[in-house]
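Figure 6 in text form: structure in, sequence out.
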C-alpha cells in the first residue's frame, strides 16, 4: 500500500451511513453499488468487458479464472518457478496440476522453457508480472495460440501495469489482481478477475458465489448454476478500491519516474548492470532491478551502505524450492481431495525437485532489487542513486 487517506475514509463512511454493506442490493433502497461501480471502472481501466471483484485476494482471482476456463482434474497448467506459491496453489485448488517452468533474466516466465514444457495435457499458462515487471506477453500469447492453450495473467503485483501499451490482464483470456496490503492498490485484502470472454465471466461468477442461484443476476446467465466457493466482495471493499483507482495513475507515474531516474543516472556506470526488461515503459516501477555475475557480488552490492537492496532468492515464499506443501504433495483438506491423488491426474507430471529450475535459482541469486516508493523526496532518491554509484565502483 502506497497512498491511503481521507478520500477512502469519506467513501467508506457513505457505505456505513447507508447501512448497506452487502455487495448485492437495490439502489432504490439506498444501496450505493460501490462494488458494481468499481467493477465497471476497473474494466474500463484495463480495457476489457468484464470485472469480478472478489474477497479472497489474488488467489481467488486465479482460482475463479481457472474455473472459468474449465480447468480441472486431468489438466496441467504451466507456472513460473518464481512467484508467490498461490499461483501454483490456485491450480491445485481447481484439481489440476502445476508444471514449473524457468524464468529468464527479466525475472518473468521464459517463453523458450514454456514451449519445452508444453505437453499433451497442458491447458493453460500463467505468466506472472512479478514486482510489477511485465512478462513477454506477445511471445507467450503467440505460443499459446500455436498450441491452442489458454493464458491467465497473474497481475497480482502489477495493478495497472502494461505491455506494449496494452494493460496487463487484457492480453490473455483472463487476468487476476490482488489488492491486499502489499500491493499497488489496496483495500487491505481482496482481488479481481477480468476477461472479455462471457463464458469465463459467467463460470467465474458462479464459482465465486456459493449463493449465486439466489442472486438477481443469475437470471442473466446462459449456463446452469453450480455450487462454488464464497469469494463475494463487500461494499466497503468496493468503496476503498474506487478511491484507490483514482490514485493509481499518480502512483504509477511517480514510481516510474523514480525508476527511470535510477536507470538514467546509473546507466553505463562501473559495476552497474540492470536486469533486462520486456517493456520499461509498462513496468510499474515497484522495484529497480540490478544483476551481477555472482551471488557474492550481488550480496556485496545489496549490503553496501545506503542502498537497502535485497535478493529475490531470499524472499522464501516466492521461490519454488521453498513451496514445501507443493513439493511434498500436501494439497487439499482430505486425502481424496488431493489433486496429486486424483485418478484423472495419474500419469501427469507430478514430481518436483528443489533443483528442477536451476536457471531460475541462479538468476534470483544474482539479482538485487531496490524497492521504490512514490513519495520519496528528491533527496532520498539522490542519496540512493549515489549509494548505488559508489557500491558499483568499489
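Output sequence:
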Amino acid at each position: 500500500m502506497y497512498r491511503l487517506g481521507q478520500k477512502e475514509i469519506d467513501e467508506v463512511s457513505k457505505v456505513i451511513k447507508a447501512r448497506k454493506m452487502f455487495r448485492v442490493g437495490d439502489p432504490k433502497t439506498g444501496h450505493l453499488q460501490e462494488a458494481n461501480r468499481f467493477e465497471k471502472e476497473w474494466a474500463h481501466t484495463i480495457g476489457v468487458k468484464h470485472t469480478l471483484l472478489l474477497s479472497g485476494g489474488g488467489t481467488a482471482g486465479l482460482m475463479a479464472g481457472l474455473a472459468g476456463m474449465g480447468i480441472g482434474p486431468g489438466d496441467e497448467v504451466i507456472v513460473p518457478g518464481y512467484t508467490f506459491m498461490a499461483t501454483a496453489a490456485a491450480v491445485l485448488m481447481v484439481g489440476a496440476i502445476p508444471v514449473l517452468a524457468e524464468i529468464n533474466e527479466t525475472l518473468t516466465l521464459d517463453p523458450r522453457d514454456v514451449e519445452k514444457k508444453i505437453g499433451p495435457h497442458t491447458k493453460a499458462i500463467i505468466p506472472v508480472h512479478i514486482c510489477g515487471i511485465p512478462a513477454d506477453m506477445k511471445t507467450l500469447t503467440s505460443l499459446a495460440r500455436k498450441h491452442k492453450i489458454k493464458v491467465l495473467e497473474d497481475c497480482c503485483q502489477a495493478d495497472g501495469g502494461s505491455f506494449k501499451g496494452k494493460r496487463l490482464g487484457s492480453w490473455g483470456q483472463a487476468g487476476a489482481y490482488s489488492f491486499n496490503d502489499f500491493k499497488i492498490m489496496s483495500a487491505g485484502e481482496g482481488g479481481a478477475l477480468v476477461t472479455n470472454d462471457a463464458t469465463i465471466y459467467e463460470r467465474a461468477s458462479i464459482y465465486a458465489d456459493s449463493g449465486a442461484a439466489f442472486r438477481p443476476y443469475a437470471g442473466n446467465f446462459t449456463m446452469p448454476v453450480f455450487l462454488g466457493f464464497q469469494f463475494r466482495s463487500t461494499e466497503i471493499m468496493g468503496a476503498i478500491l474506487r478511491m484507490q483507482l483514482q490514485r493509481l495513475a499518480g502512483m504509477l507515474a511517480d514510481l516510474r519516474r523514480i525508476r527511470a531516474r535510477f536507470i538514467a543516472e546509473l546507466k553505463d556506470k562501473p559495476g552497474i548492470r540492470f536486469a533486462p526488461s520486456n517493456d520499461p515503459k509498462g513496468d510499474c516501477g515497484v522495484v529497480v532491478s540490478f544483476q551481477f555475475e555472482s551471488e557474492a557480488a550481488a550480496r556485496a552490492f545489496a549490503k553496501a551502505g545506503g542502498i537497502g537492496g535485497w535478493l529475490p532468492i531470499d524472499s522464501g515464499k516466492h521461490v519454488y524450492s521453498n513451496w514445501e506443501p507443493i513439493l511434498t504433495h500436501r494439497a487439499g483438506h482430505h486425502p481424496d481431495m488431493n489433486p496429486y491423488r486424483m485418478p484423472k491426474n495419474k500419469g501427469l507430471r507430478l514430481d518436483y525437485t528443489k533443483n528442477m529450475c536451476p536457471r531460475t535459482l541462479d538468476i534470483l541469486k544474482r539479482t538485487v532489487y531496490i524497492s521504490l516508493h512514490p513519495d520519496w523526496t528528491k533527496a532520498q532518491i539522490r542519496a540512493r542513486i549515489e549509494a548505488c554509484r559508489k557500491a558499483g565502483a568499489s
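Caption detail: The longest strand covers residues 50-54.
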